[in-house]
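Field reference: sequence -> structure
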Amino acid sequence: MKAQGGFTLIEIMVVLLIIAGLAYIVGTNVMGSFNKSKVEQTKIQIKSLEGALKLFKLDNSFYPETQQGLDALIQMPTVGREACCYSKEAYLDGDLVPLDGWKSEYIYIGPDQTGDGTYEIISLGEDGVEQTEDDISSRTIR
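Structure field:
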């Protein structure tokens, strides 16, 4: 008599466990890389925004105030200090200030609130909560 071919329930379970383990390992590595790329993207954007802020200051002799925000880089401010020599091309390309890697707006704190004549740009990171470990600040990246 011939033995019938096929898989036992145990063999199928072992294969499923192996596949699940591999999926977990690959998924963990991919998600870790994906989050790391968002952090790097955000740092690069903050550096770009800093460059635009420096150009704004070069033209107008001051950094935008907090109430003027980063919008002062795409359109002439209508509140706060007057920008006497605002560039006709603005300071950023496009009509919108870019969002951070998690599609959230940056927080801008101008020299009127920092108390030291400079500014701070903050991304709240993945959790979107202020003053947590994953926040990214222009003052801490170099």
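Note: The helical segments are 9-60, 111-114.
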